[in-house]
Design a protein that fits this description.
Shape: globular
Number of strands: 13
Oligomer: single chain
Length: 378
């Protein structure tokens, strides 16, 4: 069988968590495909992103990937169906949105439902596109891959999908990159370039409004007297200019200028080093369909504090401290507790390492391939 995975939805010049998903899925699924052939549908500018699987996969090349969203969508809708037929593709694996008339059986991998659950994070046009065309893609797909039980509930609620057509396949992380600090590694060199103190809590995510970074900033004001040396380090791209300005203003108004650092988007290798030295990762999202930073931090031996929202309790298991995403005072209390209780921190590290170990790309790829084959058999 010939299976085609559409990775053109990613921007090679601004990689996201979804980029990492496709990079890892492409690598692992090509290892276990056997007699099946794996094709990647990519834009011309994505060659470098997926060069690691160039010899083990085939390519269907579109003019654009998501560095040019409008032209990428045009290629997906008007060029791709004919290309699938020309290459004899037996099944297309799309993301949230696929061709309206694919001419080929589809498995849709739906990773988010932000058009419904976090509409403020999307422009009106993109929101409408995902609701209308995304809904059609999901309803017409033979099977849907969802990355969490929480996301599956959203698919049922907003698209009216029969739960029997949904297969939950959790995402995973790169255990070669995200692992505890060892003597002689490059953690010291990486940390030194950020000019941080010895104690900091970490936030890792692109700064969308629903990521709720303000609750951590407010918590920093609460613990500032009890923990005068504890910094807040915020890592992530800033796609929402207005929201980023609000956060900067909040830091200024609370007189936390020296305590809170915005360091922008960083390479995965640098983020891993920041996890290893952090007092804790704080992931205060109000809406999440998976929450990969939780597992990355755990795999590095970093305690995790996250919220009761969406999929986060599901992914964290018993390895994290939870709080209501609107309660900055409770968050401050948890941070102070961990700062004073080394035995609790050690227990969280052990639980976190065990929990992260349950999520591997080998398992994710195998389950994904099983869904492809199940869909073909229908």
């Amino acid at each position: 069988m010939k299976f085609a995975i559409d990775v053109s939805t990613e921007n090679p010049f601004r990689p996201s968590g979804a980029t990492g998903y496709y990079v890892n899925i492409a690598r692992e699924i090509s290892k276990i495909a056997g007699d099946d052939e794996i094709y990647l549908i990519r834009g011309r500018s994505q060659l470098e992103t997926f060069e690691h699987v160039a010899s083990s996969t085939n390519a269907i090349v579109l003019p654009y990937s998501n560095e040019n969203p409008l032209r990428r969508v045009a290629g997906q809708q008007f060029l791709l169906p004919a290309l699938l037929k020309r290459h004899g593709i037996d099944l297309l694996n799309t993301g949230n949105v696929g061709p309206v008339f694919p001419l080929t059986p589809v498995v849709a991998t739906v990773k988010t439902m932000h058009a419904f659950t976090a509409p403020e994070s999307l422009p009106l046009s993109k929101r409408a596109f995902r609701k209308i065309i995304g809904g059609r893609t999901a309803r017409n797909a033979r099977l849907i891959i969802s990355n969490s039980y929480s996301n599956s509930q959203d698919l049922v609620q907003f698209f009216g999908i029969d739960p029997k057509r949904i297969r939950i396949v959790h995402e995973a992380l790169d255990h070669e990159l995200f692992k505890p600090e060892k003597h002689g590694d490059d953690t010291d060199d990486i940390i030194s370039k950020f000019k941080l103190g010895n104690h900091y809590v970490l936030f890792v995510s692109s700064l969308w409004r629903y990521k709720n970074a303000e609750v951590l900033i407010k918590a920093a004001k609460e613990f500032s007297r009890a923990l005068p040396d504890l910094q807040v380090v915020i890592v992530g791209y800033q796609p929402d200019i207005a929201y980023s300005a609000e956060l900067t203003s909040l830091v200024s108004n609370l007189k936390l200028g020296e305590r809170v650092q915005f360091v922008g988007g960083q390479k995965q290798r640098d983020i891993a080093a920041l996890y290893r030295r952090a007092t804790a990762l704080v992931y205060p999202s109000k809406n999440e369909t998976f929450g990969l930073p939780l597992l990355e931090a755990m795999a590095c031996g970093c305690p995790v504090i996250t919220t009761t929202a969406g999929s986060l309790p599901e992914i964290a298991g018993d390895a994290a401290e939870l709080f209501d995403p609107n309660d900055h005072e409770h968050l401050a209390t948890i941070i102070q507790m961990l700062s004073a209780d080394s035995s609790r921190v050690d227990d969280m590290r052990r639980r976190g390492l065990a929990r992260a170990g349950e999520f591997t790309w080998e398992s994710t790829a195998a389950k994904t391939l099983d869904v492809f084959r199940e869909a073909i058999a229908q």
